[in-house]
Design a protein that fits this description.
alpha/beta; globular; 5-stranded parallel beta sheet; about 20% helix; 6-stranded parallel beta sheet
Length: about 190
């Protein structure tokens, strides 16, 4: 088993007998995703000035009230919600996505531009394992970081204090404090 495996999708005992039945942990995660998708759909349909309605739905999505002075502009998307840790003075602009099953922490004063995406889960690259496992690692964003519009933060990334992630950047590696990350660049790094 490789170190990046996080959750087996199918029940291993039943799969060994030739039955492809979703495992209990995956079923529980799927149930939460369905619930949160319904909640975010309701949130994103509210009038922008319905502060009470938004606060109630965010509390259901996150499992707790929003911290003081956190601002989130809908539309807002998350697949789990319960593992999204938002500190004070966080600002999240419109159209952002937080796939937080493995955990996302945004430190004090983090600003997130529109349509930024945080992804903590994925699948193995190996085609034989891709439908059998989910992989995952938490994302940690330190204080006073600015994430530009359309940036994508991938599983396991830590971003240091005061860093800036430029618009459209794809961040797959840790970012040192007080640094600027720019550029989306896709390259072939492996073949099979």
């Amino acid at each position: 088993m490789t170190g990046d495996r996080f959750m087996r999708i199918h029940d291993p005992e039943l799969e060994a007998r030739g039955e492809r039945v979703l495992g209990p942990e995956f079923r529980a995660m799927h149930q939460r995703v369905m619930e949160v998708t319904a909640l975010t759909s309701r949130l994103n349909a509210l009038p922008f000035d319905d502060e009470a309605g938004k606060a109630e739905l965010f509390e259901q999505i996150l499992g707790r009230p929003l911290p003081d002075r956190v601002t989130i502009y809908p539309p807002f998307y998350t697949d789990h919600g319960l593992r999204l840790d938002l500190s004070e003075r966080v600002f999240v602009n419109q159209g952002c996505t937080f796939l937080d099953y493995a955990g996302i922490r945004l430190g004090d004063g983090v600003m997130v531009g529109p349509k930024a995406t945080f992804i903590t889960m994925g699948h193995p690259v190996d085609p034989e394992e891709r439908r059998a496992w989910l992989t995952g690692s938490p994302i940690d964003v330190a204080e006073n970081v600015w994430i530009g519009a359309g940036a994508t933060i991938l599983p396991g990334v830590s971003i240091g204090r005061d860093a800036v992630i430029a618009a459209g950047a794809v961040v797959a590696d840790d970012v040192p404090a007080a640094s600027l990350v720019t550029g989306p660049k896709g390259t072939v790094s492996r073949r099979w």
